């Protein structure tokens, strides 16, 4: 039996999912919007100001300055962001757009296929405490094997049923060769610990830092989100979608995808760091 997520993906036309998933985007009207004042600031300061600006804007204004690009795996998205000096838009900004936008036609235009956010989440399988390292492995549609690892800082070791959250670009993905990668943090103080991370897949939960936590709640509960997670370790970004076939999937928080999958990605310009 197909899962809820598999049914949604399967019902999208193949040409949209594989050949040109963002080809449906037409030209968007230009609007004068507020930009982050980043003159004379360091790269880290520009990133911080840009995040703050995005989070302070009304959803329709945030949409105006976000650039959506399609058909990128995580590795390509991070390389593009670094090369062009862009911030991958955080999950909480996508969440406000998805839950506060009333124009469903526009939402389906932007989020009709999965969009990978800049919010990276690391978790272990249920009831397994964090050790020195978290390892996640998967196989893509071409039977290529991948793995990502993360050296857990000492202050988080032994934590059970928790998640670690790091926002782009406060982490780097280092290639170790042979499709093996390692996540490195720029500064461990940028890691956010989410305690009581929800253990049960395909249930509704309240959230902390945009991540589902605690016991299952009714879907009608204000601010509840629907969690898609695995029962093994995961290292990857949150993905969001508007959905189709009548499913209320704009409230889905997807934490169960191989970073080699090609998704849409939303960017905002912050300027390249000084060399």
Overview of the structural elements:
Strand 10 and strand 11 form a beta hairpin. Helices cover 23% and strands 31% of the residues. The chain is α+β, with helices and mostly antiparallel strands. The longest helix has 14 residues, at 43-56. Strands 1, 2, 3, 6, 9, 13 and 15 form a 7-stranded mixed beta sheet that branches. It has helices at 4-10, 14-19, 43-56, 59-65, 74-84, 91-100, 104-111; strands spanning 67-72, 86-88, 115-123, 133-139, 145-151, 163-167, 171-177, 180-185, 192-194, 203-208, 211-213, 225-229, 234-240, 252-255, 263-269. The termini are far apart.
What are the main properties of this structure?
alpha+beta, single chain, seven-stranded mixed sheet, 15 strands, 7 helices, 275 residues
Blueprint (SSEs and pairs):
Layout: H1 4-10, H2 14-19, H3 43-56, H4 59-65, E1 67-72, H5 74-84, E2 86-88, H6 91-100, H7 104-111, E3 115-123, E4 133-139, E5 145-151, E6 163-167, E7 171-177, E8 180-185, E9 192-194, E10 203-208, E11 211-213, E12 225-229, E13 234-240, E14 252-255, E15 263-269
Parallel strand pairs: 3-15, 5-8, 12-14
Antiparallel strand pairs: 1-15, 2-15, 3-6, 3-13, 4-5, 6-9, 7-8, 10-11, 10-12
Outline:
With 275 residues, the chain is α+β, with helices and mostly antiparallel strands.
């Amino acid at each position: 039996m197909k899962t809820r997520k598999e049914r949604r993906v399967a019902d999208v036309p193949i040409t949209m999912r594989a050949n040109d998933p963002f080809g449906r985007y037409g030209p968007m009207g230009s609007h004068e919007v507020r930009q982050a004042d980043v003159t004379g600031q360091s790269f880290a300061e520009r990133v911080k100001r840009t995040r703050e600006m995005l989070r302070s804007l009304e959803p329709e204004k945030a949409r105006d300055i976000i650039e959506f690009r399609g058909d990128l795996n995580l590795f390509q998205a991070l390389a593009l962001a670094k090369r062009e000096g862009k911030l991958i838009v955080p999950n909480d900004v996508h969440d406000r757009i998805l839950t506060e936008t009333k124009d469903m036609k526009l939402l389906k235009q932007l989020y009709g296929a999965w969009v990978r956010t800049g919010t990276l989440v690391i978790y272990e399988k249920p009831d397994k405490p964090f050790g020195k390292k978290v390892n996640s492995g998967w196989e893509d549609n071409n039977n290529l094997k991948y793995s990502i690892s993360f050296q857990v800082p000492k202050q988080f070791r032994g934590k059970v049923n928790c998640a670690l959250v790091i926002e782009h670009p406060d982490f780097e993905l280092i290639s170790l060769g042979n499709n093996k990668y390692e996540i490195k943090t720029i500064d461990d103080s940028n890691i956010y610990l989410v305690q009581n991370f929800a253990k049960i897949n395909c249930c509704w939960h309240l959230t902390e830092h945009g991540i589902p936590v605690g016991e299952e709640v009714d879907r009608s509960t204000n601010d509840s989100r629907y969690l898609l997670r695995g029962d093994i370790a995961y290292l990857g970004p949150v993905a969001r979608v508007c959905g189709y076939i009548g499913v209320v999937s704009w409230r889905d928080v997807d934490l169960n995808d191989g970073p080699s999958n090609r998704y849409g990605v939303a960017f905002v310009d912050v300027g390249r760091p000084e060399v």
